[in-house]
Description:
By secondary structure, the chain is an alpha/beta fold. It has a single domain (4-281), classed as Rossmann fold (3-Layer(aba) Sandwich). Helices cover 32% and strands 23% of the residues. The chain has nine helices and nine strands. It has helices spanning 58-64, 68-74, 120-135, 150-161, 182-192, 196-199, 204-207, 236-246, 262-280; strands spanning 4-11, 14-23, 28-36, 45-51, 77-81, 138-148, 169-172, 218-223, 250-255. Strands 1-2-3-5-4-6-7-8-9 form a nine-stranded mixed beta sheet, with helices on both faces. Strand 6, helix 4 and strand 7 (169-172) form a beta-alpha-beta unit. Helix 2 (68-74) runs parallel beside helix 9. It is found in: Cytoplasm. Keywords: Cytoplasm, Hydrolase, Serine esterase. Serine hydrolase involved in the detoxification of formaldehyde. The active site is at 149 (charge relay system), 226 (charge relay system), 260 (charge relay system).
Amino acid sequence: MAVSEVSCNKMFGGFQKVFSHESTQLKCKMNFGVYLPPQAESGKCPVLYWLSGLTCTEQNFVTKACAQRAAAEHGIIIIAPDTSPRGCNIEGEEDGWDFGTGAGFYVNATEDKWKTNYRMYSYVTEELPSVVNSSFPVDSDRQSIFGHSMGGHGALICYLKNPGKYRSVSAFAPICNPINCPWGQKAFSGYLGSNKETWKEYDASELVKKYQGPPVDILIDQGKADNFLPAGQLLPDNFVAACKESKVPVVLRMQEGYDHSYYFMASFMDDHIKHHAKHLKA
């Protein structure tokens, strides 16, 4: 589980670093960002996993999200992985921006063409935490997860599929109901095949209906000027309705004038870090 340091920059008294390692789940080299707050120099810190959206690498969050100041304030390590395997030389993986490279959708593919490498769900929930826990001063009993768009979908399903594993969850403009949106239908049919019943295992609006676990505290921010909202890609109302039906509390904040970009996320990042700090320090 050896990791190699790719870059290191001091920031808010801590260090923003990028590491690489050879992934056994994905069968390729993967990069991930690590923010180590000043508190990590003297003891173990809670850890917060960030999952990015379509087309992103680890760099988008590292350079644009403005999360490090709040992470330093609250003493939280933030881990930001890539969004898919890289350089696997699978026919078709570079053909579009919403499938294949940069678009792993945080599922374990079952279709023959993709199932060897496209195992982002197991990578994010099993392999990466194992690497992180053995390489950095993290308190593995205190971990949470959040993300954006495709990564917001990833954060919600990782949380709902693993009751008790994460202390809290939040998302910016998540793909809430992928089995009913064009992005999700394209990805799931490609990675998981034609049996739509299997798709439900990676859909937050379906998973929340059968959630049985510790009390939840879900925070979602959605920009009202997000062009993917009227396009039917995000469907937050479907998730809220499913939560209401299942008596699962969720806070959906519709933010006037904000779009789908990192400008939006940076504007409310402090709120999300505070949301997680409340649970990670408990």
